[in-house]
Amino acid sequence: MRKLFVPTTFTFALMACSPGSGDVNVNTYGEDYIEVEIPAAATPDEEGFIDGFTVTYSKFLIALSSVHLHSADGVEGGEMTEQKIFDMHQKGPTPVHQFRGLEAEHYDEVSIEVGPAKGATAGNAAPTDVALMNDGGYSVYATGNIMTGTTSVEFAWGFTTNTRYQECEDAEGAAGVVVPNGGTAQIQFTVHGDHFFYDDLQSPDTKLRARAIFAADADRDGEVTLAELGAVDLTTLPTGQYGTGGDGSVENLQQFVTDLSRTLVHFQGEGECKVVKQ
Amino acid sequence: MRTTHLFPALLCTLACGSDTARSRINFEVTAGGLTQGGPVTTESGWTVELSTAELSVAGLYFFEGEPLFARVDRRPMRGRLLGLVIGTAYAHPGHYVEGEALADLLQPVTLDLLAPDQPLGQANGVSGAYNSVRVVLKPAADLDNHTARMAGTATKDGVTVRFTAHLDLDRTIEGVAFGADLEASGGKVHLAIDPAEWVRRIDFGSLDTTQVVELQEGTQPYNAFTRGVENTAAFHFTWIPG
User: Fold this and answer.
1) Distance separating alpha carbons of residues A198 and B97, to the nearest angstrom
2) Confidence (pLDDT) at B82
3) Do B80 and A186 lie within an 8 Å CB cutoff?
4) Which of A82, A90, B1, B113 is in the most buried spot, having the most CB atoms within 10 Å?
5) How close does chain B come to A120, measured CA to CA in Å?
6) What interface predicted TM-score (ipTM) does this complex get?
7) Residue B175 with chain A: CB contacts under 8 Å
8) Strand B148-156, strand B188-193: pairing
9) Domain boundaries, chain A
């Protein structure tokens, strides 16, 4: 004879008080702009470079760490403490971390850090690329080419910026992540490869341009380096381009793209995080 | 909503279910020059003294969002359900998000930046955390239909350049930093604009020394002047309690 489960008042009380538990899967994704190409805009109103260039990444390494979930009312979700290197040029989305058995809760404070690699391990990056990041102390390292017509220049830029992306909200303004009882929530830290080619650090009307960066190859060796970008004073570029918004200390193209290296990570596609320089 | 009056938005801030209770406030706004033309040493070592520095400000809009690298979006939540969006990255606005509109002042005025304190008018708005300001620059009739105008001398190693310059910009400067929690009327906001930023990056070495020269569009000096006028670092907002 089967035993019938007869809930008692005590059991009901327990059920009412316990929020249960759930999981969170965290992944990262470079989207088509990093995996395939950033195209030229067919018309000025369409997405892509307005000056006719295209950019293709061959490698886009990023050091992710300190993924942290907690709620404003003090519930600690968890933290991925190790640092991992991901190559966003590989097809994604790519798993970053799994949080298991978290209290079912709205974790409205979600954050992640992109900092200089030190003892980092592979996310999906090749061992040689992990070594490259650790040896150089890079947080972001991107290689690729910038093309117009049949002419192109290569680039290989490493950045040691240390940036925390916190208080992340999705594109609708919903903060963090809701962990359902008995279910699995998804977090995606989306990396936007087009940001390196913004022509303004703050304007809502920023455009994608590559002409000035392409032309910075002063020694005409087919590679535009960060040092060559540093030799391009913004005051030598046309007005209306490369505005520095709230950061008046940015005076050349190297400083400009370095600032942009702090804006790459988004939340759940087009969502935003508060960007904090470390 | 970029150039229109924010009154409807402010009404909505009061009535549309914001997480934060707002109360109507108003405050005086004054403005003037920060360095008032005193000698400025440029990056290339020129010593500049300004005899004219004027700017036409067509309006100020105060917001809750913090400027670049310090954004806090305090918009009320429009939904708490997680919405996972996986799509293609598109060029989109920079990371400055203006957030809620809190106050505005739409009294056009031409400022003499060689003087310290001039009235801009009364701003009307709501209480809240004021973190950024949009400054609208437009040509003005009392500035000969220019937006900005300057004149002065630059000296280096015994060489003196006498110069004039003007801009006809119709430009909105987004995300100027401001930090004040305004809870009630009284007090004032002071905007100090530093004309030193207008000349700090100009290379005067390329200019004629035999006559007064007008900075020409397309040149480095003109470009540096334009970037200086647009530089948010030139704008300093301060709250002075009543």
Assistant:
1) 16
2) 25
3) no
4) B113
5) 26
6) 0.72
7) 202, 245-246
8) unpaired
9) 21-277
